[in-house]
C-alpha cells in the first residue's frame, strides 16, 4: 500500500476514519491524502426560474419588483444581483468550513505520526468526487466513515460510503 485517500466531512465517523487511515499510512509508510467534498447548491438558477414563473406577465424588469423584499445587507439593485451575491457568499463560507475540516484532519493525522498529508477540497457529489480523487492521486485504498453528516437524505438516497464501495476501483475500508 503506497497511497491512501481518506474522506472527511468533520463528523465523528469521519474523524475515526482519519485516525484509521493515519494509522495505516504510518504503518505502511504510505502517502495520505485527505479529501473533503463541498456540496453547495447555488440558488441562482432555481430562484431565477421561480421569479420568472411567479412574476410571469409582469412588465419588463419584473425581477426588480421583488427587490424591496431582499435583506438590506445585500445592497442589491435587483433579485439577480442578490442571488449572485448570496451564491458567492455561500461558496466562500463552504470553502472556509472545508479548509477548517481539512486542517483538523491533517492535525489529527500528524498527531498519529503521519509526517505529511495532502489536503484536497472539491465540490460536487461526495461519492463521485471521493472516487475521482482516489483515481487522480493513484490511491490504493479509500478510507471513510460509515455515516457522515447527510442525515435523512442518506436514508432516502443511500449512503456515501455505500456508493463509494460500489464505484471504487480500489479497496475501500469503511470505519464504523
Structural description of this entry:
This protein is α/β, with parallel strands linked by helices and 176 residues long. The protein has helices at residues 12-28, 44-54, 79-111, 126-137, 152-157, 160-167; strands at 3-7, 31-38, 117-123, 141-145, 171-175. A five-stranded parallel sheet has the order 3-2-1-4-5, with helices on both faces. α1 links the parallel β1 and β2 (31-38). The longest helix is centred in the middle third of the chain and has 33 residues, at 79-111.
Secondary structure: elements and pairs:
Elements: E1 3-7, H1 12-28, E2 31-38, H2 44-54, H3 79-111, E3 117-123, H4 126-137, E4 141-145, H5 152-157, H6 160-167, E5 171-175
Parallel strand pairs: 1-2, 1-4, 2-3, 4-5
Helix pairs in contact: 1-3, 4-6
Supply database-style keywords.
176 residues; alpha/beta; Rossmann fold; 2 domains
Task: Give me a quick take on this structure.
With 176 residues, this protein is an alpha/beta fold. Helix content is 49%, strand content 17%. It has helices at 12-28, 44-54, 79-111, 126-137, 152-157, 160-167; strands at residues 3-7, 31-38, 117-123, 141-145, 171-175.
CATH 2nd-level architecture of the largest domain: 3-Layer(aba) Sandwich
Overall 3D shape:
elongated
Number of strands: 5
Strand order in space, largest sheet: 3-2-1-4-5
